[in-house]
Amino acid sequence: MSDAVDYREYMDCDCKVYVEVTADFKPDGTIYPRSFKWEDGNRYEIDRILDMRRAASLKAGGTGLRYKVRVRHRETFMFLEDGSGTFRWFMERR
């Protein structure tokens, strides 16, 4: 048995979900997401932002600002992806 990672598995993964986000933009340039609309049309309020840092999504692929957030007592990640001047929010499908 090999411990090698098959990266094709990540390429075929339908784990990345682009979401509509409502956010606050502060004068210092910081962006705080406040709510998001999931792919089923439901809108969820973000209870708290727990962490924010530049990181990659190992599950869905892509990099950007990673926000660790609490939504309805559950922790999850949101990513603000920078694609050559175009910014999009995505989350990982479970």
Q: How many distinct domains?
A: 1
What are the secondary-structure elements, in order, as H or E?
Answer: HEEEEEEEE
Strand content is over 45%
Shape descriptor: globular
Low-confidence stretches: 5-12
Biggest beta sheet summary: 5 strands, antiparallel
Explain what you see.
With about 90 residues, the protein is mainly β. It has one domain. Helix content is about 5%, strand content about 55%. The protein is built from one helix and eight strands; from the N terminus they run αββββββββ. The strands form two sheets. The protein has a five-stranded antiparallel sheet, with no helix packed on it. A hairpin with a 5-residue loop joins strand 3 and strand 4. The chain starts with 7 loop residues before the first helix and ends with a strand. About 10% of the residues have low confidence.
Task: Provide the descriptors you would attach to this structure in a database record.
five-stranded antiparallel β-sheet, mainly beta, 8 strands, 94 residues, 57% strand, three-stranded antiparallel β-sheet
Which helices and strands occur, and which strands form pairs?
Elements: H1 8-11, E1 16-18, E2 20-25, E3 31-37, E4 43-45, E5 48-56, E6 63-71, E7 74-83, E8 86-92
Antiparallel strand pairs: 1-8, 2-3, 3-4, 5-6, 6-7, 7-8
